[in-house]
Structures are given as C-alpha cells and as structure tokens.
Design brief:
Order of helices and strands: HHHHHEEH
Oligomer: single chain
Distance between the termini: 19 Å
Structural class: mainly alpha
Number of domains: 2
Mean pLDDT: 77
Shape: globular
Largest sheet: 2 strands, antiparallel
Length: 108
C-alpha cells in the first residue's frame, strides 16, 4: 500500500498507527485504490460500530457480540447500502491483499 501511495513503509505504518496524519491527497488516493468515497473511509469505524460491537470477554462468544440493528436508527435501505458498501470495500481489499501476496510469491 505504501508503494501505491508513493510513501515509505514506515510513513504508511505511522498513518495506520495514528502516529502521523494522512494528507488529503493521500486520502484521495486511498479512495481511488479501494474504489470508495473519502467519506466512507473517514466514517468507516463509526458505521461499522453501528452494526457490530467487538469486546473482550470470557463468556464463550469469542469476543464478538452483534448489536440489535433495529436500535441504530438507520432505515432498512440505509442499512442495506452500508452493508453493500462494506462488502464491496472488503472484496476489493481482499483482491489487493491477494495481489500483494502473489507479487511476493507467497502461496495462499
């Protein structure tokens, strides 16, 4: 990903780890790479949280609890659109990761 953004691996790691801020131009490039809007990237965690809550616990659910989606305040059409966007973005991310593995001759 760092290569695609024309930055060093270290600079990209700093962005991912919230050590450094991402520039607007790099954010635009990410939206092109993942083929989603800048708004989608900026609000991804917020949207995801409205559907899923990941917590650590010892009650047998392996740290995963699904929130009642009826309580999020979204209409069904909005929920469907968000889930479709999330699925589409994740599929593109998988394709990019597979290409990265292939480029390094890593079998998967």
């Amino acid at each position: 990903m760092a290569d695609k953004l024309s930055i060093t691996t270290r600079a990209y790691a700093n962005i991912e780890n919230n050590v450094a801020e991402i520039s607007l131009s790099k954010l635009g490039k990410l939206s092109e790479i993942f083929q989603c809007s800048i708004d989608y990237i900026l609000h991804y965690d917020e949207r995801k949280f409205n559907y899923f809550n990941h917590i650590n616990n010892n009650e047998g659910n392996k740290g995963y609890i699904q929130i009642n989606q009826a309580q999020t305040g979204f209409r069904n059409s909005e929920k469907i659109k968000l889930l479709e966007d999330l699925l589409d973005c994740e599929r593109k991310r998988i394709n990019l990761l597979e290409a990265l593995l292939r480029s390094h001759n890593i079998d998967f």
